Amino acid sequence: xxxxxxxxxxxxxxxxxxxxxxxxxxxxxxxxxxxxxxxxxxxxxxxxxxxxxxxxxxxxxxxxxxxxxxxxxxxxxxxxxxxxxxxxxxxxxxxxxxxxxxxxxxxxxxxxxxxxxxxxxxxxxxxxxxxxxxxxxx
Length: 138
Description:
seven-stranded mixed beta sheet; Cytidine Deaminase, domain 2; 3 helices; alpha/beta
């Protein structure tokens, strides 16, 4: 049985909108949550050398986002990024660079002929475990 995670429609719409605003490069950021429910997304600039192919969170913005989410009583729920030209599955670089085994990695694909795809994974020891994302009306 696949684990299911509820993602509020507001967060889903925000993530999809951010991905659509930058269709040529990977967008990225953090998702804060309370009691296992995502509550807020924190966009962070992608400072990777090849932003069309990978993401690297701006360290200063990542620290500021972590501070902001902790100050608002949230925990790190997830890390999101987009794949402009690839499916919504973890790349070799995603698996290699994953540093938060308890965070949900949300990947948005723009590679599906106008239909955005969003999938969630837990990444640990260069392995991925997909979870089912279920839209909620919260």
